# Entry
Amino acid sequence: MPSALNEKISKIISIVRESIPDAPVFNFGATSIPTVKQEDDPKKYRLQSFFAAKLSPQSRDGVTFATCRRIFYTFEPFTIEKLAEATEEDFRKILIDAKHGFTKTHAQQIVASIKTMVEDFEGDLPKTREGMMTLKGVGPKVANLLMQLCWSEKHMVVDTHCVRVGQRIGLHSCKTAEKAMDYFQDNVDPDLFEDISVSLIAVGQTVCKSQNPQCTECPIRELCNFGKNRVQKKNEEVVPKKKPRREE
Ligand code: SF4
# Structure
């Protein structure tokens, strides 16, 4: 799918990877959370990825990482059978200790999701996006992330960073994550989905905060509509206006 949009996205991906490798998403994001490799223990990897994706919305990457690791080390062996024995209170206590938010809701939804996996999906993660959304509390964004993590399918994951940063750069003009997700899926090469999602999150976590984006520090400013205009305006403000020439 060659297009100017895909070319611009490819440039953003390579600049961001090189310029801000310390962004939280690169070190504590969902792909960093499992303790096993997919090829070594695929079922355990998928189960751990469920927690990584489920606990990621509205939480900092570092907090989600720490919470998931606490859960993994609490339940040994980390199997669906062992997890099915746990109560809402067991999960809630871990979430509180890890200072994760929405503890009651997450605990209820985790227990209900595990029950669904046991009863409807042979103790594993569902193999389809529709199946993922039958798990309690899993909406389109988390379902996309789960399909990407568990089954290596290409789905676009859009969060608030992707909406805000993507808009400022000029990649899209959508106001909501759902609309931006559809836009990316209709117009962008699927091979770029995972990397552009993570790159926009990295920029949003570091320089492109919702209030006062630091455009002069931003490695992708030359590719960003908002950043280029902003810096140009600032430069114009500091250039003194020419005084009118006096007539002799
Ligand atoms: S140049 Fe400014 S607005 Fe554009 S992505 Fe960078 S920080 Fe955000």
Q: What stands out?
A: The chain has a mean pLDDT of 94. The two ends are 64 Å apart (CA to CA). The CA atoms of residues 67 and 98 lie 5 Å apart.
